[in-house]
């Protein structure tokens, strides 16, 4: 099955045109247009006896007491009597989209911190969500949906999904915006998701051909600067960026072979090349068969019953495996076809690739996971 998957990858790569192009939008991000992570700590109430045990979760007890005091309820004198199982301390996370405006609602994820067993049906109380700078950017509240099933009887229980983690759709309201004056900047930077000198230069050249003037330049393998302070870019920067995002280029790839030896997975890039090398893959099998026999004395004779061992050792060597020669500068498809012609399995193919690399004949980066 794995050999078939490797062959399908090779065929797909060889069948694709050599100048396969992709949009700049799919390989680069505009600096400033990014998401931000938010996190908060809150309480979930309304659980059906599946919340934290207050004796085992002091942070839940302290949070509950503090919340009640803010609401005007004094429980300090009765702190030792608090024994509810309907409250759970949770961590709340969310993603703040780029250019999100105040009042916009976003989804939040909730996960239990203590020994709560199920958050289904619980309600998250008002929880401030903080950014990396410690400022509050959103406030979350709402009923949690876990999508899990948990049932328990006297002698058996069943759980489907993760009942201690859930989601609140549109559960947070954005209270603060991330400042970014997009219309006031004189230049913007495109960040390549896979840094490469050749790809960065091709992106800059494509933008310059479209603008008909040198407005873009690659300053490093991961960054291309674009001047938007003059021409039509200054009049409509959003429209200009929209148009350059649709430009198509051919990204360059590093020749790389990825091997996951634990799972027997091999992934090879289209630029992998192999110098002339001879490959022989042996198949020596040693089979040991134990067939013990029972020896019994004759009737009315003297002696005792014993087990006599019988061992058969067989050595088999497949004589059809011969030395194969892989010619110089073969492509990915040729390499896979040559190895499959030798009857090489996925595990043996991993060892052969490592040996080819050790011999200096594999002109690619070999990465073992």
TrEMBL record:
GO molecular function: structural molecule activity
Swiss-Prot/TrEMBL keywords: Bacterial flagellum, Cell projection, Cilium, Flagellum, Periplasm, Signal
GO BP, sorted A to Z: bacterial-type flagellum-dependent cell motility
Cellular localization per UniProt: Bacterial flagellum basal body
Keyword Signal: yes
Main location, first listed in the record: other
GO cellular component: bacterial-type flagellum basal body, distal rod, P ring; outer membrane-bounded periplasmic space
Keyword Signal attributed: yes
Pfam families per record: FlgI
Domain of life of the native organism: Bacteria
Signal peptide: 1-20
Function as written in the Swiss-Prot or TrEMBL entry: Assembles around the rod to form the L-ring and probably protects the motor/basal body from shearing forces during rotation.
Family stated for the protein in its record: Belongs to the FlgI family.
Assembly behavior: The basal body constitutes a major portion of the flagellar organelle and consists of four rings (L,P,S, and M) mounted on a central rod.
Protein name as annotated: Flagellar P-ring protein
Protein source organism: Elioraea tepida
Lineage: Bacteria, Pseudomonadati, Pseudomonadota, Alphaproteobacteria, Acetobacterales
């Amino acid at each position: 099955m794995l050999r078939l998957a490797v062959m399908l990858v090779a065929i797909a790569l060889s069948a694709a045109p050599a100048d396969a192009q992709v949009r700049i939008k799919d390989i680069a991000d505009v600096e400033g247009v990014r998401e931000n992570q938010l996190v908060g700590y809150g309480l979930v109430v309304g659980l059906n006896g599946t919340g934290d045990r207050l004796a085992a979760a002091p942070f839940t007890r302290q949070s509950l007491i503090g919340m009640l005091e803010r609401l005007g309820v004094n429980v300090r004198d009765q702190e030792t009597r608090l024994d509810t199982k309907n409250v759970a301390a949770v961590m709340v996370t969310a993603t703040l989209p780029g250019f999100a405006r105040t009042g916009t609602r976003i989804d939040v994820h909730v996960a239990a911190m203590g020994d709560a067993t199920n958050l289904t049906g619980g309600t998250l109380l008002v929880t401030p969500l903080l950014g990396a700078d410690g400022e509050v950017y959103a406030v979350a509240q709402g009923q949690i949906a876990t999508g899990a099933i948990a049932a328990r009887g006297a002698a058996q229980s069943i759980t489907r999904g993760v009942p201690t983690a859930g989601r609140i759709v549109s559960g947070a309201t954005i209270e603060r915006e991330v400042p970014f004056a997009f219309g006031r900047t004189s230049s913007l930077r495109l960040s390549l998701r896979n840094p490469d000198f050749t790809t960065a230069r091709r992106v800059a050249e494509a933008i310059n051909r479209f603008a008909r003037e040198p407005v873009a330049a690659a300053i490093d393998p991961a960054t291309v600067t674009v001047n938007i302070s003059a021409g039509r870019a200054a009049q409509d920067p959003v429209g200009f960026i929209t148009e350059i995002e649709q430009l198509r280029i051919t990204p360059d790839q590093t020749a790389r072979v990825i091997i996951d030896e634990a799972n027997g997975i091999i992934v090879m890039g289209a630029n992998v090349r192999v110098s002339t090398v001879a490959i022989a893959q042996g198949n020596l099998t040693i089979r040991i068969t134990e067939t013990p026999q029972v020896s019994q004395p004759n009737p009315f004779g003297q002696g005792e019953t014993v087990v006599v061992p019988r061992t058969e050792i067989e050595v088999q060597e497949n004589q059809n495996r011969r030395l194969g020669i892989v010619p110089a500068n073969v492509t990915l498809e040729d390499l896979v076809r040559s190895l499959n012609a030798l009857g090489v399995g996925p595990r043996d193919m991993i060892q052969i690739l490592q040996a080819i690399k050790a011999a200096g004949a594999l002109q690619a980066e070999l990465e073992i996971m």
